Amino acid sequence: MRKPRAQMIAETRAKLIAAARTAFGTIGYAETSMDDLTASAGLTRGALYHHFGDKKGLLVAVIAQIDGEMNAHMRAVTAKASDPWTGFRDECTAYIELALDPEIQRIMLRDGPAVLGDPWDWPTLSECIRSMTESLTKLAESGVIAPIDPEAGARLIAGATQYAAQWIANAPEPEATSRKAIEAFNLMLDGLLVRS
């Protein structure tokens, strides 16, 4: 029995994304040959062009998939927290810690910006800012943190986490850099707390 067209399309896209993710994560975007990539997926270059336009479009899809996984991980971290402030703080720390993952380093923090430009222009960042703005609004309304413009706070915090992640991804000693970054970041973040 023949598969429905929608299922075939989804399977083809999934094969291309999986092959690209493996290649981009191991040898990098620049070194990935489209012929080798499509052959490893058992598909043609035509399938890549049809579904993603080009290699850059495929990178966008890979980044969207990894970003979704990163967000799910951070939501799980937040859900385990004993209170909203700890959840917010742990979520930010979890993002910085993800910069130790070699695949995230190469795809999200090195090749992504080199190929797609400034991450502040990526669609995925706007969702991060929206979510963080919402969290800061609730924390300020409940008196946990000092009154702050929530969007300004979200953008500054997101900038700090993004820069820390970039620093870790490009550091000669990522583990040591991560520890230093997280310690400094958490001290900075704790400055928002209302002191009783």
UniProtKB/TrEMBL annotation:
Residues 33-52 bind DNA. It comes from the Bacteria. Residues 10-70 form the HTH tetR-type domain. InterPro entries: DNA-bd_HTH_TetR-type_CS, Homeodomain-like_sf, HTH-type_TetR-like_transc_reg, HTH_TetR, Rv0078-like_C, Tet_transcr_reg_TetR-rel_C_sf. Keywords: DNA-binding. This is TetR/AcrR family transcriptional regulator.
